[in-house]
Amino acid sequence: MIRVLLADDEPRYRGTVRTLVDGTPGLVVVGEAATGRAAVAEAARQRPDVVLMDVRMPDLDGIGATALITAGANAPRVLVLTTFDLDDLVYRALHAGASGFLLKDTTPPRLVDAIHTVAAGEALLAPTVTRRLIDAFTGRARRVLPDLTARETEVLTLVTRGLSNAEIEAALHISRGTLKTHVGRLLSKLDARDRAQLVIAGYEAGLGQPRTG
């Protein structure tokens, strides 16, 4: 069962999402918060697997709340939901430790899939966000990666491009255990806290390209 915390200052929106989550097998809402500080407190008390975090909230915004929630060991995954598709929000949310970023007008099935995706430790970005990240990093001075092996570079490239674990395993013909080993080494070498941080590193190194198909 994936435990979900809802952090949003709009009661009607929280109610809509609660109905969706509680009505989906394998998901359950364990708490709600209407401010950033309340979200931090509820996350510590309820220990959810995933926090659905609004950006614009009173008391402490969602970016600051995300940074506090993800700072500890065994921290929950944070999926940022917002009506504002702005570059600054995307970058700040990901650097604060968010594992994903979706717009609030996403479809219910997409939101459910997103919860499962980030709960599994994968990064998730809305397609419009992915395109904006690619555009933003195009032409910038590229980040120089540490001494990665050829296979680690391949894995980082596919992670950056948004492929799931299963898709990467199939593309590289490797097992789940081998992929986990490669990802673990990448996290260590790039000093990244999670998969979303690997995506940022990949974009900064020029490895991000739009997916096709």
Automatic annotation (TrEMBL):
Q: Which residues carry this modification: 4-aspartylphosphate?
A: D54
* Name of the protein: DNA-binding response regulator
What residue stretches are annotated with the HTH luxR-type domain? 141-206
Q: Could you tell me which CDD domains the record lists for this protein?
A: LuxR_C_like, REC_NarL-like
Q: Which UniProt keywords apply?
A: DNA-binding, Phosphoprotein, Transcription, Transcription regulation
Name one process (GO BP) from the record: regulation of DNA-templated transcription
Citing just one GO molecular function, the answer is: DNA binding
Domain Response regulatory residue range list: 3-119
The signal sequence is none
Asked whether the keyword Disulfide bond is assigned, the reply is no
Keyword Phosphoprotein on this protein?
yes
In which domain of life is the source organism classified?
Bacteria
